[in-house]
Amino acid sequence: MSIADNILAFTLAATVLTLTPGLDTALVLRTATVEGRFQAFRAALGINAGCLLWGAAVAFGLGALIAVSELAFNVLKFCGAGYLAWLGLNMLWRPRRSLASEATAARPDANWFMKGMLGNLLNPKIGIFYVSFLPQFIPQGQPLVAWTFGLVSIHVVLGLLWSLALIAATQPLAGVLRSPQVITWMDRATGMIFVLFAARLAFSKR
Fold this sequence. Notes:
There is one protein chain. Helix content is 79%, strand content 0%. It is an all-alpha fold. Helix 1 runs parallel beside helix 9 and helix 4 (62-68) packs across helix 5.
């Protein structure tokens, strides 16, 4: 395939993967509904910053180490599962019933950025996915590092666009979605999703 064909094929594959519902979609939707669009956008930035960092790790060899080292994989896997379980259980045990004031919501806050980024960084499956998936779209003889960053950047742009679409979709229903009952339900539903993903990650194999 030509360079253009490789880029097009990767973009199509990455689009399908981005649109497939998963942990990132649940996090962005929940944050947009309960915390507001500013925090949801920060969560989306954090998620995609995690993708960029994984791309850097893969480009410089760390991803390959995780793919072949049982110990490295398990350490990251259990740290990630523990982190997701902690987030999920907090939402289950202490769901919110009201939102912060508009002034509070508008203030810069790195909390959701860090949650989004850590959720990706502590998931070794992403590193292994990049290690196994990206090389299929790198033409023979092309610089590995530059192409890895280029393909990951395409994935990040797609992820940001999808996150923006999810955030925008919550706005017409903002009044209903931000009622105390819905906020509590969203926290508990997202918490359950996080716990399920934590269990899935903890029992996953390479």
